[in-house]
Amino acid sequence: MRSLMSPFVNRRILLGKETVALYENVQEFVVAEVDGEVVGCGALHVMWEDLGEVRSVAVSPDHGGQGIGAKIIGELERRARDLGLSRLFCLTFEVNFFGRLGFEPIGEHVVAPDVYAQLVRSPDEGIAEFLDLAHVKPNTLGNTRMLKHL
């Protein structure tokens, strides 16, 4: 997954993740394979009782345009529903891709103030991105916050 995500990290499309973070969160990932080769990946991170985040979605440029990304998102949505989640968040430069899959741009207030107060305590950078906290803005400048109701 690291080698698959690296070109997107280098172009600042995806946030880089330390190898230890990939191992710690491997259970959140799904992968797509073609002839035994991993050609796509994506992760579902549970943020709150009804809210999850789609993270680290990447498809090999050699396999782009084949619907692999949409299939990865579809599997992550299935997993989200199985967990009882009703909303999925993403922070992305790929607005058209996620828009075709039912995600819509959102403003800043997606959770109630009491939930915000709990989430702001998390050390997770993805949650900081979701909350639009100032310390992550240099990493996410230009990204669009999007949400899908399941």
UniProtKB/TrEMBL annotation:
GO terms for cellular component: cytoplasm. The keyword Coiled coil does not apply. One of its GO terms (molecular function) is N-acetyltransferase activity. Gene3D superfamilies: 3.40.630.30. It holds the Pfam family Acetyltransf_1. The keyword Oxidoreductase does not apply. Residues 1-125 form the N-acetyltransferase domain. PROSITE patterns: GNAT. Keywords: Acyltransferase, Transferase. This is Amino-acid N-acetyltransferase. It comes from Propioniciclava flava.
